[in-house]
Amino acid sequence: MEQIAADRNAVATATERRAKFFRGLADQSRLAILDALCAGPLVVHEIVGRTALTQPNVSNHLRCLSECGLVTSMRDGRFVRYRISSPRIADLLHDVEALLDAVATGVEACRNYEPDEDEFHR
């Protein structure tokens, strides 16, 4: 009986961890930043140029991505250069695109998670 409870707790913990991870990715701005960083390390103004996000928005989301361990940074003279922390993140984004190609009709039709257009451009 104790083993069943322990197994349920482990599953719940793993599920909560995955949900938290995907909530971190469930933002258009953060995904745009990660997409930009897939090409290689960039400084904030380069990310702004590639994503059309504002500098404060980029900086805020980079802080979030960094705190979650998805992005790392290193000083490059007077700038800070950001990069994806693991090539597996770029692989995940690529795999998502392949998955979307397979189930796009369902995702396109889903209205439960409509993006807020204003949020993306802040």
Q: How would you sum up the global shape?
A: globular
Distance between the termini: 52 Å
Contiguous runs where pLDDT drops below 50 for at least 5 residues: none
How many structural domains in the coordinates? 1
CATH superfamily: Winged helix-like DNA-binding domain superfamily/Winged helix DNA-binding domain
CATH architecture verdict? Orthogonal Bundle
GO molecular function, one term: DNA binding
InterPro entries: ArsR-like_HTH, HTH_ArsR_DNA-bd_dom, Metal_resp_trans_reg, WH-like_DNA-bd_sf, WH_DNA-bd_sf
Domain HTH arsR-type: 10-104
Protein name: Winged helix-turn-helix transcriptional regulator
Summary tags:
Arc Repressor Mutant, subunit A; 3 strands; single chain; three-stranded antiparallel beta sheet; 122 residues; globular; mainly alpha
Walk me through what this model shows.
This protein is mainly α and 122 residues long. The chain has one domain: Arc Repressor Mutant, subunit A (Orthogonal Bundle). Helix content is 68%, strand content 11%. The protein contains six helices and three strands, in the order ααβααββαα. It has a three-stranded antiparallel sheet with strand order 1-3-2. Strand 2 and strand 3 form a beta hairpin. This is Winged helix-turn-helix transcriptional regulator. Keywords: DNA-binding, Transcription, Transcription regulation. InterPro entries: ArsR-like_HTH (IPR011991), HTH_ArsR_DNA-bd_dom (IPR001845), Metal_resp_trans_reg (IPR051011), WH-like_DNA-bd_sf (IPR036388), WH_DNA-bd_sf (IPR036390). GO terms for molecular function: DNA binding; DNA-binding transcription factor activity.
